[in-house]
Write a structure and sequence with these properties.
Largest sheet: 5 strands, antiparallel
CATH class of the largest domain: Alpha Beta
CATH topology of the largest domain: Rossmann fold
Shape: flat
Order of helices and strands: EEEEEEEHEEEEHEEHHEEEEHEHHHHH
Distance between the termini: 69 Å
Number of strands: 18
Helix content: 10-25%
Radius of gyration: 25 Å
Structural class: alpha/beta
Number of helices: 10
């Protein structure tokens, strides 16, 4: 297309992470270029794609089928970089390629607003579904309605006993209604390796074991013996449910893992009680909880616990071991707080002045001199994240 000199489009200024394909640009948050395999029942694909004619549709194509993007959303980062170009904001997309459709590869296509189709990327990745399928099979043998404890049947839309609804997202049942993956909203994903690094240290796992990870996130690897429970759906999630309202029979599990979960639970007493309810007599649980960690997701942060607080939550259990794990040492709290403190400054000069201070200068005298009082330009989010205490004023 020819244009007059005064109609020439501005030079393209792609975001630093963008990829150029002809006249198109794209970037994938998930899976990133570092990912070679995914643990779970589906491949999540999230990112953005831009075309000068605008983007009408995005879809993934495999030899087994086509999956359209379920969500389209605006990307402020793309708009900022391509502000001089049309159709630069609504470029984000999210889709899930189920294991029944995945064949190891998927081509990503877009349809422009002019009705033309363009291929912009090919994903090649290994989907580890075996552990998910094995854990799912074990789960279905012990899954019950959390309201009346009647067995739950595969794909049944409600409990046959009390009528409580059950939403099925693929093979994953949800007792909390339709719960999409946090990745769909662009939120951070918990990827801790509790199954790899923690479970073997505390449980004697045999081929016949059945373990519950009550707040699993999305671990890099799965295990056939471990059922993964979450409040929203990740690729490896076997069941979506409230940890204080577990959908399992009494005395079901040989072990329960609760890693970095307790601070995110609205009802920690109910959660601890239900964890003990579903354990077999003599079975173990391991619970790692935050104490001096600042406020953090996902999805919300409610209660930190001291060691005595944690033991109070599990009152009645025999405590075999207690203390501070290697990854919970005080250095983590100090480093976390200091990094967040520095990040929270709105005044650049104050930030640099703070970074140059020595520890001895920071300490001061708690009774007379408090040097940190001089640093007041923190954002409100940082004040809440790092507060020494909080308050509410109520009225009834």
């Amino acid at each position: 297309m020819q244009t007059r000199q005064d109609e020439v489009l501005p030079e393209l200024r792609p975001p630093a992470a963008g990829n150029q394909v002809g006249e198109m640009q794209f970037f994938l948050d998930i899976p990133s270029g570092e990912w070679e395999e995914i643990n779970g029942a589906f491949v999540p694909v999230r990112g953005w794609v831009w075309h000068p004619d605008g983007v009408e549709t995005v879809e993934a194509r495999t030899t087994k089928g086509t999956v359209p993007a379920g969500v389209r959303f605006g990307r402020a980062d793309v708009y900022k970089a391509l502000a001089d170009h049309p159709n630069a904001f609504h470029t984000g997309f999210y889709l899930e390629i189920d294991r029944s459709v995945w064949d190891g590869n998927a081509e990503l296509w877009l349809e422009t607003c002019k009705g033309e189709w363009r291929r912009f990327h090919t994903i090649s990745i290994k989907l580890h579904e075996t552990d998910f399928a094995a854990a799912h099979e074990r789960m279905m043998k012990v899954l019950v309605c959390p309201s009346c404890y009647r067995p739950t049947e595969m794909y049944a839309p409600s409990c046959p006993g009390c009528g409580r609804p059950v939403e099925w997202m693929g093979e994953c049942p949800s007792f909390l209604g339709k719960r999409p993956s946090p990745m769909e909203r662009g939120e951070a994903v918990s990827r801790h390796a509790a199954l790899e690094n923690i479970a073997p240290d505390y449980f004697d796992i045999t081929p016949d074991s059945i373990i519950l990870d009550a707040g699993a996130g999305w671990p890099p690897k799965g295990r056939a013996e471990v059922i993964q429970l979450e409040i929203e759906r990740f690729p490896s999630t076997n069941v979506v449910a409230d940890g204080a309202d577990l959908p399992f029979r009494d005395e079901t599990f040989d072990g329960v893992i609760s890693h970095a979960v307790m601070e995110h639970v609205q009802d920690p007493f109910g959660y601890a009680k239900d964890v003990m309810r579903v354990l077999k007599p003599g079975a173990r649980f391991i619970c790692h909880s935050a104490f001096l960690q600042p406020v953090h997701g996902y999805p919300h942060h409610y209660f930190n616990t001291s060691l005595e607080g944690l033991k109070t939550l599990f009152k009645g259990a025999k405590i075999i071991e207690e203390g501070v794990a290697s990854f919970q040492r005080p250095w983590l709290a100090l480093e976390w707080i200091l990094r967040s403190y520095v990040h929270g400054f709105t005044d650049d000069a104050e930030r640099e002045r703070f970074k140059q201070m020595k520890i001895v200068d920071l300490l001061g005298d708690m009774d007379e001199s408090r040097p940190l009082e001089a640093f007041q330009s923190l954002t409100e989010d940082s004040n809440l994240e790092l507060a020494a205490g909080v308050y509410i004023l109520g009225e009834c």
